[in-house]
Amino acid sequence: MEQPSANNKLIIYQMLPRLFGNTKTVNKPNGSIVENGVGKLNDINDKALQEIKKMGFTHVWFTGVIEHATMTDYSAFGIKADDPDIVKGRAGSPYAIKDYYDIDPDLAVDVKNRVREYEALIKRTHANGLKVIMDCVPNHVARTYGSDVKPAGVRDFGQDDDTTQAFSAKNDFYYMPNQHLEVPGGYNPGGDEFKSPLKDGKFDEHPAKATGNDVFSASPSINDWFETMKLNYGVDYQNNRTPHFDPIPQLWNKMYDILNFWAAKGVDGFRCDMVEMVPFEFWGWVIPKLKAEHPGLVFIGEAYNSTLYSKYINTGKFDYLYDKVGLYEAIRRLTCDQPNATTWDINQVWHNDSNGIDEHMLRFMENHDEQRIASRDFAGNPWYAVPGMVVTATLATGPVMVYSGQEVGEPGAGAEGFGGDDGRTTIFDYWGVPEHQKWVNNGKFDGGQLSEEQKSLRNFYSNLLNVVHNNEALNSGSFYELMVANEHQPGFNTKLYIFARYTAKQRILVIANFNRSEQNIIVKLPDDLRHKLQINTSVEFTDILSGAKFFSHDINDGVTIKLPAASGMLLEF
C-alpha cells in the first residue's frame, strides 16, 4: 500500500500566447487575425507572470510559439505564404511546424524581431521566478516546411533526400515515388469568406510524402493529419517497422541541433508531442546528450500507451509522461458522475499503470487537446472538478498541470472555425477566450471582470496549488492508500477516495468526495500506519484548504468526517 517518493512537483501553467493576451471579443467563426485579434508574446508582461507565480505555479508551458503554417500572409516580411489547402484553420495548427528555428510571426509586435521578443519573454519569465517549457514536435512538420533563418551550416529536412526511394535510413521523409499528393476533398479552407489565389483544392507535392499520423498514401483523408509530413527516424514502417539506427540517421542529429538551439536560449524544458510515434531509442540517445549540455533540462512526453510507460522513462530517459489513459480518464468518469465511475479505478492507476514510476506521471484535468471541464461535453460545472483536482494535485509527487482558463471556468463554447463546437478551446483559429478575458481585464491581469463565483473558483485553484507547493507531505512525502482499510466503514462508497501523504515532519489525510451530495464517513487509519506515524490517542484534523476541524477522541476508533458535495479535503494531523 505504501510508496516512498522524492520531490518532482512541477506545477505547470499551460497557455497559448495566441489566446492568452488577446483582448478582442468579436469571435467571428473563421475570423481573420484583424477581425478576431491575437495575443502577443509581449502581452505576457511582468504583472501577468507575477499573477501566475502567485497561484503557486513553477513552470509556464508556452504552447505554439514555433513558426507554423498559417493562412495569414507574411510574404511582405520575406516569409513564404502557405497553401491554405494544407492548413487547418485561419491561424493554423501549432503542431504543423514550418520552421523549427523561428517564432510564429503572429505572436510578434515587430515581426522582424520575433525571435528577440521570445528571448525577452524567456528572460522575463525567469526574472519572475518561473521556468519555461516549450513544444518539441518530433514526429511531423508542415507540408510547407522550410527554414529561412536556420543557423549557418544547418541542412534543412529533406534537403539531401533521395526522393526515388520510398524508404532510406538516410532520408528525412518517407516517399510515395512517382505519385502526386492529393489534397482531401470536402475541405473549405478558412470558410466561404476566405479568398486566396492558392485556395484551389491542390498542392504541388511530388513525390508525395507520408502523412504525420503514419498514413503511407498519396491521398490522405480529411480525418488524417493531412497538413503534416512524417519524419523518418530510421524505422521502415512498411517493412515490419524494421529499425535502421546504425549508423545514427542524420535526422537524429538535426533534431538534437534544434533542441540544443532553444535550450541554449534558456528554455528549461520541452513538452514532446506524440512521443510514441518516435522510436524510444532516439529519446534514449538525445535526452542524455542534451542534459549533458544543459543540466536540469526537463523532458515531458505526451504518451497514451501505459504498457510502454516504463520503457519511455527507463530507456527513453523521459522525466515525465502524460497520465491521460489512467488517472485523467478515471477522474473524468467520476467528475461526470457516470454510472460506471468508481474510485477503485484510481487505485488501479497507481497500483498497476504507474506502479514504481508514479513520480514520473504528469497529472491534469485539462489541456489544449481535451474538453473544458465547464463545457456541456464534460461536467458542465467547473466546481465539479474540485475533488478531481485535489486528487490530481496530491496523489503523487509528480507534476500537475492547469490549462489557461480552467481556473476561471472557461467552457470552450461555440464553433470557432476549423475548431468545431466540441467543448474545446480552438488551437486552429484566431479567437478570444471569454471567461479568461475577464481575468485579463484589458491587460491589467487583475481579474477585474470576473464574477464573485469565478474569483472564488480561482482562489480554490490558487489555494490548492500553493498548499501543494509549500507542504512537504504533498510535494515529496510517502503515499499510503486507505481504500481497503475503509471499504467496510460506515459511510464508505466508491465515489470517495481516501489516502495519506506523510513525511517525518508532516501528515496529511486526503479525502475526495465525487458524490453530488454531502457524505459522512468514519475514516480509520490501519494499525501499521498509526504505528508508523506514532499516533495512538486523541487527534485533531485541520483542513488546510478551508480551516475546517475534526476531532477524534480515540484515533483507534477512527475520525468522523463530514464532506460537502463534490469536495476535497487535505486534513493535517
Residue share in helix: 10-25%
Q: How many β strands by DSSP?
A: 25
Helix count, DSSP H or I runs of 4 or more residues? 15
Low-confidence stretches: 1-6
Query: How many angstroms separate the termini?
Result: 20 Å
Q: What fraction strand?
A: 15-25%
Strands in their spatial order, largest beta sheet? 2-3-6-13-14-15-16-17
Mean pLDDT value: 97
* Helical/strand content category: alpha/beta
Shape: globular
Q: How does this structure look, described?
A:
This protein is an alpha/beta fold and 573 residues long. Helix content is 24%, strand content 18%. It contains 15 helices and 25 strands. It has an eight-stranded parallel barrel with strand order 2-3-6-13-14-15-16-17. Helix 6 links the parallel strand 13 and strand 14. Helix 8 packs antiparallel against helix 9. The chain is globular, with a radius of gyration of 25 Å. It starts with a strand and ends with a strand.
In brief, what are we looking at here?
With 573 residues, this protein is α/β, with parallel strands linked by helices.
